[in-house]
Predict the 3D structure of the following.
Amino acid sequence: MEPLVIRGREALGKVTFIEHDNTEHVTEFEAGSTLMQVAVDNAIPGIDGDCGGECACGTCHMIVADEWFDKTGDTPGDDEEQMLSMTPERAKTSRLGCQIKTTEAMDGIIVYLPEFQM
Amino acid sequence: MVNTQKETTVIVGGGHAAGALMTTLLQKKYQNEVVLVGEEIHPPYQRPPLSKNYLAGDVGQDSLYLKPCSVYEVAGHQLRLGLRAEQIDRDKKIIRLSDQDTLKYGRLVLATGSHVRRLNAPGADLKGIHYLHDMADSDALREQLLPGKRLVIVGGGYIGLEVAATAVKKGLNVTVLEAAERLMQRVTGPEISSFFLAKHRDAGVDVCLNTAVIGFEADNQDRVAGVTLENGGTVPADIVLVSIGIMPETALAEAAGLPCDDGIVVDEYTCTGDPDILAIGDCTRHRNLFFEQPQRMESVANAVDQARTAAATLMGEDKPYDAAPWFWSNQYDVRLQMVGLSKDHDQRVVRGNPRDGSFAVFYMREGHLIAVDAVNLPMAFMVGKKLVYLRKRVSSEALSDVDVDLKSLV
């Protein structure tokens, strides 16, 4: 069981991160966080988030499970699209985790992590 | 029977490199206990926002922390914060702390970071003169950022310019004094400097180039009232920020007799001259297989990449540091992303038009790509990350032709 890590705010739902080798990490997320921050807070391997969420590094690539993709809000913006374009494991539901703000509708979301970040 | 007694790994320093090392060791399920000794009361945190949205007051302290403290503690590691490491006894493998306690280490990682370069000039100790290095500095500066006040920034590098952008948005009258002939001269080429000069002037910042500072004037309450220039002029000021660079923090290592040369000298495995002591981040002069010469690098990317190298070394893996350095800066609506070091280039190729607010400069040396600076053009940065690492030979025509898909060059 992964530790529950919450920055003093109310938990909003659960997310399952699945590593490249199929290791699963189930963790809670809180309102107003990003999926990058949730992964980093819980030391989930496979998400670096080196720039801290300034959309500057491209090291928080995640692949959202198909059925959850439309729950993650907007499709990637132009900057995010450019950042994603060079990622080696690009999929059609690829996103940068720092650009996905958590919402209640995402309770239960499943996210796959690539083997390598940029 | 194998001796299974575990030794403690001690990290001295609580900055980005230290935090990234803790994180990587957590992820790799490092078996030894890790104790981090940090001088600040905060767990490791992001410094880049200190000149941007944290300074502006848009985000709070807890959003800067790399991780909540509980994550380290759940894994059995310790953060000992608000403490200085005063001395390393390499024979006994003990560190003396500022609270008189001692810590025994099996392996020691120095992540002591840097301190700001101070301006030694008459009046440099007056009230109202700020430096920006840690969260407390950013808090102190934020309190002064009131509309209508006159902020004079000494130094037109990343930090000075990011603060200028933050402050002018808050309605201050901002002046930037830069001794060199262009902004960010140490880190970028003239096209990028010119672009940012225009950007700041358009926003209302008064930027003075070729303008050296020789002192400060006081009011009758020992507060700074003006900045004295070498050319004889004076710029009136309510607040001054001096942002003229950082120096590696090597005192602890030097006192312990570890080789230092403007940075703690480490090899590509982050090892110092002592087999039980590693060093990472801003404080190091290090080998990186990407470069022929040892480097000192002031960046988050270097802190993180060296931390990952150190984690591998601590776990007995053979993973030398081999990465192209990268950097970023956000000012106004502009995201500057850089990869590689441009200073030794012999040719520059511009893609796109700076007037459109989105362009890139490619720096070549003998036909090979050695660095890319991308302004609101993330694709050029991402492609650059690959090409620069490979020092790929690319045609300047293809780089400058916006009809050629950059991805096709990889």
Notes: Helices of chain A lie at 35-41, 78-84. The interface with chain B takes residues 3, 5-8, 40-45, 48, 50-52, 54-58, 79, 82-83, 85-86, 118 of chain A (CB under 8 Å). Chain A has one domain: 12-112.
